[in-house]
Amino acid sequence: MGTMDGKVAIVSGSGRGIGREIALKLASEGAAVVVNDLDAAPAEETAKDIEAAGGRAVTCVGSVVDADFAERFVTTATDTFGGLDVIVNNAGYTWDTVIQKMTDEQWDAILDVHLKAPFRILRAAQPYLRNNPVDHHRKVVNIASVSGLYGNPGQANYSAAKAGIIGLTKTLAKEWGRYKVNVNAVAYGFILTRMTEATATDDAFVEIEGRRIKVGVSPQIAAAVARTNPFGRPGTPTEAAGAVYLLCTPESNYINAQVLTVDGGSR
Question: For 211-241, how does the pLDDT look when each residue is reduced to its tens digit (9 = 90+)?
Fold first, then answer.
C-alpha cells in the first residue's frame, strides 16, 4: 500500500531531471501519473520506467506555453485515469543575463514558462476540482526557487517569475481551500540538473524550443556552495523530489500557502 494509492497526478516537465524524479516518486507510492515533456522520447522513457515498476503512466507531450496545452494536460488525466488529485508545476529553464543585456524575448520566454503556464494549468483544473468533490485533500505544488525569494544576479526574468509563482501559490491557497485543495510551493536552491551540472566556463548549451540556451553555474557559485552549504554539496534531483512528495502526502493536509525552502540550509 502506497501513501498515494488511487490518486492521479500531473507533473509538467517530468521527462528529465527533477520532474522525472517527482513522477517516479509519486508513482512508486501508488499515483497514476501524466508525464509531460517538450520531447516525446524522455516523456515516454519516464512513463515506461513507471510501468516497468508496476505503476500507471501516460504521456502528454508538448510545450507548457502552448495555448491549448493546459486543457489537454488536465483532460489527459481525467479522461485516462478518471480523476485529478495532484498538480505539480515543474517545467522550466533559465535564460540568464544582466538586465541591460536582457531582451524582451528572454524576459517573455521565462515569464511564460514559469508563471503564465502554471497559471493556465491551474485555471484549466479549477472547473474539474470544483465540480468533482472528493473526501480527501487534493494537492498543488508549484516549483519556485530561492532566486524568487532573495534574487540572483543575472536572473531578473527568472527571479521575477519565481516570485510571481509564490504570489500565485498564496492566492490560490486562499481561493481553493473550500475545495479541500492545498496549494504550496517548493523553493529550490542549488540542485544538480542538466542546467547546473556544467560550469559557466564549459561553453555548454541546451536546445529548448528552437533556442540555443547557455547553461552552467559559475565556478565561484559552485565554490561558494561547497564552502557555505552545511552539507558541502548541491542537492540531487531525488532529494528535490522528496520535498514535493512531502507536500502531496496526507500528513500535509493542514499545510497550506507555504513555501518550503530546499537548499540544504544554505541561508
Answer: 777 776 767 777 777 788 999 999 999 999 9
Helix axes 237-246, 17-28, angle to 10 degrees: 50
Strand duo 181-188 + 204-208: pairing: unpaired
What is the grid cell recorded at 258?
A: 507555504
Q: Where are the beta strands (DSSP E) in the chain?
A: 8-11, 32-35, 57-59, 86-89, 138-145, 181-188, 204-208, 211-215, 259-262
- Beta bridge partner(s), residue 208: 211
Q: Shortest CA distance to 116 belongs to which of 157, 173, 84? A: 157
Cβ-proximal residues to 63 (8 Å cutoff; 6+ apart), any chain: 38, 69, 209
pTM of the model: 0.94
The answer to whether 188 is a known catalytic residue is no
Taking the C-alpha atoms of residue 38 and residue 136, their distance in angstroms, rounded to an integer, is: 32
Q: Please identify which of the residues 93, 158, 188, 245 carries the catalytic annotation.
A: 158
Of 42-56, 71-85, 198-212, which range is least confident?
198-212
